[in-house]
Structures are given as C-alpha cells and as structure tokens.
Design goal:
The complex is a heterodimer of chains A (289) and B (359). Chain A is mostly helical and 289 residues long. Chain A contains 12 helices and no strands. Chain A has 2 domains: 50 residues; 204 residues, Orthogonal Bundle (MetI-like fold). Classes of the chains: A mainly alpha (289), B alpha+beta (359). The structure holds adenosine-5'-triphosphate and magnesium ion.
Chain lengths: 289, 359
C-alpha cells in the first residue's frame, strides 16, 4: 500500500516537473520566434518588396512585377553607383591587404619596445577615424590635401579606418607561421619580401581571404565617409546614391529603393558564400594576452 | 667544400645565458662532424650561430678562407636541415627541393630537372608531385636533405636530423646518411644528444656542456680516453663506472679493496691523492672464483640487453655499485658472490677536478 502511494506521489511529482519543463520550452520557443521575427521581417521585405507593384513599408506577398528593376536599370546614376561602390571596395581591399600584410609581418617579426601598446592604441583609435567624431578634422585634412571629391581620397580614409583591425588580426596569423620556414628560406638567400611572398603569404591565405571579404563589406556599406568627401553624384557609391531616391512628392521612392537594395546586397552575400566554401571563415586566435 | 673555424666564439642571449662560451673549434673540409651534449648545452645555438641565424656576441667564424662572422645567412653558403624539416606545406616536393634554385633565378625547366636528379639520388622517385603532408617522416627528412643538396652549399648543418623518426627508421636513416655524406663530400656538422648516433656517424665528435667544449676527438678517442668524468659518463651506451678512491702504496684503494693503478696513470699520481677510478662495463668481466686484483662483491641486479646482460655488483664495505656487461650464457644469478676482473690498461683515473690523469 505504502509502496503504491509512494510511487503515485513520485508520478505526480514527475508530471509536475514535465509540465514545468514544457512551459519553459514554450516560453523559450516564443521568445526565440519573436527575436527571429525581428530579424527576419526586414529580410523578407528585402526579398518581396522589389517584386511588388506597389511596395510599402510593410511585408506582404507581392503583386508580382519586374517593373521596379526596369525603372532601376533605366536610372543611369543607380547602375553607375554600383560600379563606384565596386571601385571603392576593391580599392580599399587592395590597399588594406598590401599594407596590412606588410605591417603585420614586420610587427610580428621585429621586436620593438611597446609594440603591443602600439597595436592596442591603434585598434582603439581606428574606430574614431571613420566615425562621426573625427569627420570634421578628416574633412579639413582632405581639403588641405586636395583629395575632396576624389575616390582615391575616400579609399585612403576608409583603409585607414580598417587597417588597425586588419593588422591586429593578421599579426596573429603571421605569429603562428613557424619561424623555421623563414629561416630555411633565408639560408638559401631569400630576402624578406621574397620570404613574405613565397612563404608567409601562402600560409596566411585563409586569414587574408577573411580580411579581404571583411574589408569589402565594411566599405560597401559605408555611407558617411563617401557622403562627406565626394561631391559629384557620378562618383558616389550605391550607399550614398540610394539616399537620393525620392519621388517628386518628396516621399522615398520605395519601388526604386527596394529593387536597388536587393541588387546592393547580392555581391556581399555571394562573396560570403564563395569565401566560406573556399577557405572557411577563420578569425581564430584573435586576441592574445 | 670548406673547413669551418670558430675562434673564441661567444653567443650570449639577452638575460646573460651563454649558449656558446669561448668556443674554439676547427672542422675539417669534408668532415662528418658531430656536436654532442645533453639538452640545453648549446648545440643548436652553436649551429645557428655558424649559420648566421643568431648573431655572435664576440669571436669570429670562418668558412673556408671567408670570414663570415658578420655576413647575412644567405651569403654564407650553408644549408641547414631543421629538426622539424621546415618543408613548405603549400609547395609540391619538387618545388620544395628546387626552392634554392628559384631564389638563384634558375629557369623553371632546369629547376625541375635538377629536382628530379637530386630526388633520384635520395630515393624520392615518384613522390615529387606530392605535398609534404602526404609523406612519411623518413621521406620528409630526405626531402629536407634533398633541398639542402640542391643549394650546393659549402657546409651542411643538421639539427637533430633523426630525432623525429622512430627507432627502426632512425637506424635506417643513419646508415643512409653515413653512406651519403662521403658521396656528397660536403663538410657536415650535425647536432645530436644521442651518443650512439654521434659515435656511429661522425668522423670526429665535439662534446659540449653549458656552452663549453669538453672534448674534441674521434669516436674511439672520446670513448676510450674521455677527457673528464662528464664525457666518461655521457659517452657510451652504458655509462662508465666511476668509483671514489685514494692512491696508496702503489695501488688504488676503493673502500678496503685494492686495484692496480691504470697503465696511463702510473707514475703520475702520488700517495694519498684523492682520485676517481673509472672502467667501462664493456671492459669488465666477472669471475666466480677468487681473482687477485679483482673487486669482490655480490650480484644485485641483472638486466637483459639481448645478446648480453648488464650485471650490477655491490661492493661490500661502502655499497659502491659496479656494472659489468657479460655475454648472455654467462650471467651469474642474483646473490652470487663474484669477482669483477679487468685489464689495468682498460681502466682510467680522474683527479679531484674530474680531469683524466694520463695522456
Ligand atoms: N632565444 C633564446 N633566448 C634566451 N636563451 C636561450 C634562447 N635559446 C636558447 N637559450 C638558452 O641557451 C642554452 C642553449 O640552448 P640550445 O637550444 O642551444 O640547447 P641545445 O643543446 O640545442 O639543447 P636541446 O638538445 O634541448 O635542443 C639553453 O640554456 C637555453 O635555455
Ligand atoms: Mg637543440
């Protein structure tokens, strides 16, 4: 008898536990769904709105049309701006890769006092260069250098902002290539640049690929710097041009903006998949004490 | 082809550790030379200083008649095989082997035919298209060697070239090296902490301790006539028996037993002098009947060495241990009362500083 009662009590306890567990699971699922919705809805808009004859700010199944794209392709600034974005992104990528690998290699191999302090300070200050706070001095500097309304000037400023992070990450890759590889090459008479090219860069390739994509994405999406430093619409990148798509009535031209946004985001997503497949993203190492 | 000469060479690391301390050594043209010593004694440091990968603190290095002390590593015409082989993982074996030629700006077709030629010599046929990661340790070692050969250096430097191989492969690679080196005829310095490897391979051996040279000589010399007790106990597959004693009335008193003064040391020691008596286990023998001039004791341990056995005999008065190698069918049982016998010319005396007495 007692045994039976005891077992029924444990059964009760178990079912209560299960109920709690179930409720907890429900709560968690609902919460996750809400958070997910928060992120998914803009993406859904990005996918649906371009194909909608009357796009609004809400997500709805489109009345299917390709007319938005036709309007977009008829707009000369829009397409040219994508080309400008490409110039800025690839230009910065090249500057960042060349200077970043040279700097990180030297910093990894040459012992100078206060090296780590230098690196951390650079990292800290880098967010300021391309940030809002330094825009006025940056602008004045570029005026003095005669680099206003020059894509080259924009590339320099953007690269300057990205480089410290790049150097920081690449230095870690450089640190982890065994010294004996280089020493061996050195004994056969290879000069430092030759060693960098033949031995260090091939070994740091996954890191360089990651950095390249990251740099492109950073520049591709940057609005502030080109907006301030470029004057002519013919030189402006997509991120800036998009801002100018208004209807005659002064309303944002959602048809044009949505189609353009989709076009604007495709290269970045494509690049992500390409690099991820080829090298896998490896931000390993990162920060060492 | 060149000799190597270091004079008063010192390499001091920041913090004051001397990896190489006052090293004077001449390595002859075409010689197979071993640097032997315990871990941390500065073998790698000396090798790297000769290569120019470490800058010497003072002293000078000559390769042939070229003064290289302040030369860049790439100008010294030395090739080094690193302990981890340092093969470039992203290049094919052929490209690895031909890399020195690439730096010398040799044309690609010529590079590949040279790589093939050297690959043949080092039994690497059929592997040239692979990557280093697809080779066994022994093959990788030969690729590293091949790369060194392609650069046609004056001097080869090997840092523990065999230590990454398993025991059997190591013996194979050892024989291979021993055969290859005279073929190539290039002066070769190799570092090892394995005395058997040094004895087997080298024409001459330098034994180091704490950055200082202890002895330089042929394998036979360092084995039979070690300069001091350190070399005596470091060289040899079983370490030398070293017993404390005093010279007394024309013989050596160990505990309460007397042994003859070693042939070398006769007339060089005086009564009452504190000495260390040394004898290699291989040169000792065991007698089951009383042997005059032998050391009397009891067998306590018997270790099988395959075709022989290492017998440990405890001397009665002070518990001194003497080890003896005997052939397999003659090992006495534990607890047997025995006499350890020897020829006095096979024994050595060391003074209180540990230096060998005799010439
Ligand atoms: N970069 C360095 N900085 C400071 N001290 C060092 C450095 N490299 C080696 N040493 C010290 O110099 C001494 C000799 O080192 P070395 O590497 O030459 O020894 P080794 O004989 O090659 O030993 P092993 O057989 O373990 O390789 C050691 O005491 C070591 O701690
Ligand atoms: Mg070493």
């Amino acid at each position: 008898m007692t045994a039976l009662r005891g077992s029924s009590r444990t059964a009760q306890k178990e079912s209560r536990q299960m109920l709690g567990h179930f409720l907890g699971l429900m709560g968690k699922s609902v919460f996750t769904a809400l958070v997910l919705a928060f992120f998914v809805i803009p993406v859904l808009w990005l996918v649906f709105a371009p194909f909608d004859a009357h796009p609004g700010l809400n997500v709805k199944l489109p009345e299917f049309t390709l007319n938005n794209f036709k309007v977009l392709f008829d707009n000369p600034t829009a397409i040219a701006s994508l080309g400008n974005s490409l110039i800025l992104a690839l230009g910065s990528m090249v500057v960042v890769l060349v200077l970043g690998s040279l700097a990180s290699y030297s910093l990894s191999r040459v012992k100078i006092p206060g090296r780590d302090l230098l690196l951390y300070t650079l990292l800290l200050l880098s967010s300021i260069i391309t940030g809002t706070a330094a825009m006025v001095p940056t602008f004045l500097l570029m005026v003095k250098l005669g680099l206003i309304d020059s894509q080259f000037g924009v590339i320099l400023v953007l690269s300057g902002g990205i480089l410290p992070t790049v150097i920081f990450i690449l230095k870690d890759f450089m640190d982890s290539t065994p010294k004996s590889y280089e020493e061996s090459a050195r004994l056969y008479g290879a000069k430092p640049l030759r060693i960098l090219w033949d031995v260090v860069i091939p070994l740091a390739r996954p890191g360089l690929a990651t950095i390249a994509v990251w740099a492109v994405v950073q520049v591709w999406g940057n609005f502030l710097v080109p907006y301030i430093l470029l004057r002519s619409p013919s030189k402006s990148p997509a991120a800036v041009v998009m801002y100018t798509f208004y209807t005659e009535g002064g309303q944002p031209n959602l048809a044009l903006i949505s189609a353009f946004s989709l076009l604007f985001s495709i290269p970045v997503v494509a690049m992500y998949f390409f690099v991820n497949r080829r090298y896998g993203f490896r931000f390993h190492g990162g920060i060492k004490s | 082809m060149a000799s190597i000469t270091t004079s008063s060479l010192i390499k001091e690391y920041p913090g004051g550790v001397r990896g190489v301390d006052e090293m004077d050594v001449t390595i002859h043209d075409g010689e197979f030379f071993a640097l032997l010593g315990p871990s941390g004694c500065g073998k790698t440091t000396l090798l790297r200083t000769i290569a120019g990968l470490e800058k010497s603190t003072s002293g000078s290095i000559k390769i042939g008649d070229r003064e290289v002390t302040n030369m860049e590593p790439g100008q010294r015409r030395v090739a080094m095989v690193f302990q981890d082989y340092a093969l470039f993982p992203h290049m094919s074996i052929a490209d690895n082997i031909a890399y020195p030629l690439k730096i010398q700006k040799v044309a690609k077709t010529e590079r590949h035919s040279r790589a093939e030629e050297v690959g043949d010599k080092l039994s690497l046929q059929g592997l040239l298209e692979r990557r280093p990661g697809q080779l066994s340790g022994g093959q990788q070692q030969r690729v590293a060697l091949a790369r060194a050969v392609t650069s046609r250096p004056d001097v080869f430097l090997f840092d523990e070239p065999l230590s990454n191989l398993d025991a059997r492969l190591r013996l194979e690679a050892r024989t291979f090296l021993k055969k290859l080196q005279p073929d190539l005829g290039v002066t070769t310095v190799f570092v090892t902490h394995d005395q058997a490897e040094a004895l087997a391979l080298a024409d001459r051996i330098a034994i180091m301790r704490s950055g200082k040279m202890q002895q330089l000589g042929t394998p036979r010399e360092v084995f039979q006539r070690p300069a001091n007790t350190f070399v005596a106990s470091f060289v040899g597959s079983t370490s030398m028996n070293l017993l404390k004693g005093t010279v007394s009335a024309g013989s050596v008193l160990i505990g309460r037993q007397r042994v003859a003064i070693p042939t070398d040391a006769v007339d060089r020691v005086g009564d009452g002098q504190e000495i260390t008596w040394g004898a290699r286990p291989e040169y000792l023998d065991i007698s089951l009947v009383a042997a005059p001039g032998g050391l009397e004791g009891t067998v306590t341990v018997s270790e099988n060495l395959g075709a022989s056995a290492l017998i440990t005999v405890e001397l009665p008065e002070n518990g001194d241990l003497v080890q003896v190698v005997v052939s397999e069918d003659r090992e006495p049982g534990i607890g047997t009362h025995v006499w350890v016998t020897f020829e006095p010319r096979r024994t050595l005396l060391f003074d209180s500083e540990g230096l060998r007495i005799g010439d």
